[in-house]
Design brief:
Number of helices of chain B: 0
Structural class of chain A: mainly beta
Helix content of chain A: under 10%
Largest interface: A-B, 24 and 20 residues
Strand content of chain B: over 45%
Number of strands of chain B: 11
Mean pLDDT of chain A: 97
Number of strands of chain A: 11
Helix content of chain B: under 10%
Radius of gyration of chain A: 13 Å
Oligomer: heterodimer
Structural class of chain B: mainly beta
Shape of chain A: globular
Largest sheet of chain A: 7 strands, mixed
Radius of gyration of chain B: 14 Å
Number of helices of chain A: 0
Distance between the termini of chain A: 34 Å
């Protein structure tokens, strides 16, 4: 199975900060990577797919980049509503796998 | 509007069985992969398995942790997805989500509300 390693596991930042979360795959997954946001008690929500394509309705302060084994999720200006845990996920091969998550605290 | 409405969770003893259901609407069910993902209390996300679409004969894939114990099926006439869970273990305790996915290499587009499964004596 492809291992997905996310960092940091926890991130504390202030409103307006630029925030970056990284995700590393144990082998190349091309651009078959997605990012999800999960708020407490709620199902995850798709933010970005194909590594860099913003899902419809997601604020433009979210962006994704990378290919191969290294990926990043960036929030350009952190907002109070962004308090959540963020997960990367590889859609490249079975078993589909998630990163361990990054909890963003404000 | 796309909707995935889950049902069937609950408390079951180790070694027991449970079937989860996911009723979908708002899209052509037979044209989409459908997945199950679970989340143990306070933990991260774990993919459970998927059923592919009609064009791929509804073939299934499973995570190693549930293979040979869990079975995913679908009934396109009822727009419903199912997860049959047998030989349940305490480590299967989790919130289970059904998910709409377009196809191979696609992300998990829409998630159900989740249903809790607790395996305990």
């Amino acid at each position: 199975d492809i291992q997905m390693t996310q960092s940091p596991s926890t991130l504390s930042a202030s409103v307006g900060d630029r925030v970056t979360i990284t995700c590393r795959a144990s082998q190349s997954i091309s651009n078959n990577l997605a990012w999800y946001q999960q708020k407490p008690g709620i199902a995850p929500k798709l933010l970005i797919y194909k590594a860099s394509t913003l899902e419809s309705g997601v604020p433009s302060r979210f962006s994704g980049s990378g290919s191969g084994t290294q990926f990043t999720l960036t929030i350009s200006s952190l907002q109070p509503d962004d308090l959540a845990t963020y997960y990367c996920q590889q859609c490249h091969s079975y078993s589909l796998t998630f990163g361990g998550g990054t909890k963003v605290e404000i | 509007e796309v909707q995935l409405v889950q049902s069937g969770g609950g408390l079951v003893q180790p070694g027991g069985s449970l079937r989860l259901s996911c009723a979908v609407s708002g899209f052509t069910f037979s044209d989409h992969y459908m997945d199950w993902v679970r989340q143990a209390p306070g933990k991260g996300l774990e993919w459970v398995g998927r059923t592919k679409y009609k064009a791929e004969n509804y073939r299934t894939e499973y995570a190693a942790s549930v293979k040979d114990r869990f079975t995913i099926s679908r009934d396109d006439s009822k727009n419903s997805l199912y997860l049959q869970m047998n030989s349940l273990k305490t480590e299967d305790t989790a919130m289970y989500y059904c998910i709409k996915c377009s196809g191979p290499y696609s992300a998990f587009e829409i998630w159900g509300q989740g249903t809790m499964v607790t395996v305990s004596s």
